[in-house]
Predict the 3D structure of the following.
Amino acid sequence: MLQQILDLHIHSKYSRACSKDLELPHIAQACMVRGIDIVATGDFTHPKWFDHIKESLAEDNEGIYKLRGTRNREQRTGNVRFIIGTELSCIKKHKEKTRRIHHCIFAPSIEVAEKFNSRLGNMGFNLRSDGRPILGLTSKQLLEIMLETDERMVMIPAHAWTPWFGIFGSKGGYSSLEEAFEELTPYITAIETGLSSDPVMNWRWSALDTITLVSNSDAHSCAKLGREANVMQFDSEKEITYANIFKIIKESSHMKLRDRDHAVNKFLYTIEFYPEEGKYHYDGHRDCKFSCSPEETKKYNGVCPKCKKPLTIGVENRVHELSDRTTEEAHALSNKKIPYKSLVPLPEIIADVLECGVNTKQVKEIYDGLIKKIGNEFHILISSSIDEIEKASSKDVVRAIERVRSGHIYVQPGYDGEFGVVKVFQEHEDRGKPRQIGLELD
């Protein structure tokens, strides 16, 4: 059996507000360090990025690609592979409301992606404007174009609960998949939960009981790759194909609650951001630096108490609005659902121990030392033994990782575009003697 970690939603250097370092070799290198086995190419509709994809990638398994000349790069990029995927933005009035919805789109081959790009180009869409272009289409119209291009293409609504661009978002979303896709709804077998929600929040809504929940990074830089991901199991190397990846996702969605055991055997679990850290978890108003829980929003009648303008309604509130189960009832379903593990990125853990910035030299030195001595970041966070970590670092880092594994952390929820703050330790807590950590790694 082969376990693979997949991040199916990232961007390239051609998307707005994205790092110029996002090129395929750099992405592969970062994935190797993080522990990601398969990653989406991102942005395949952009002409320059698509040229980079065609020049840089060669098919390995069916629909799965690797860097050309990988043998020469193996030390730096390992066996990281790519799947052809992107994110598209649909903005159009539909059913008396302007809908702004983002979708993850996947193609079974470079050739199909090229055919799809040509179709959009012939319709007059400006694909050069951005790696994630805006299309004047409804979600259903985009799905129709995909299926007409090739029935193997797959759509997964991106960050489904985000206020501005989620399929269920408070600002322009729908109240059901059927409202958006009508007779084509059966083609939607999964949604991306997004950084501001976790599986338990989604389990509160019975309408999603036959929808697979996937988690991806939506990375805008190499440093953010894998902040959320999916862990799947395959019988053999040759089984790792485009068709089988989406078969696992589809089969998971078609299973009834009591019958999910077989699907869970293939879809092992998702790796999650703590949803409170997501930048749309709570309600709030960024300009006024004000945030609040859904209960408080109700008390304020949805209006910011500082400036008297409407609050941006976040994911927690929107889930509460649509759900028909309590959080306790959702937790009770966990043995019938695909499991998940909530993590804090290793650099953030180290920075918290040291009480310094995540991008400081000291954090990087300790991080690089751990990777060199133990293995990739996911291995360290999820499966490495405590003794192994302590030998490569210190008791202080071990203590912090143990707390993350047990969920013993502190979170200040994000709101209205502001990321939340996750801390392993509270301000007054003793972190040990962090200065000794660096000495032990020398």
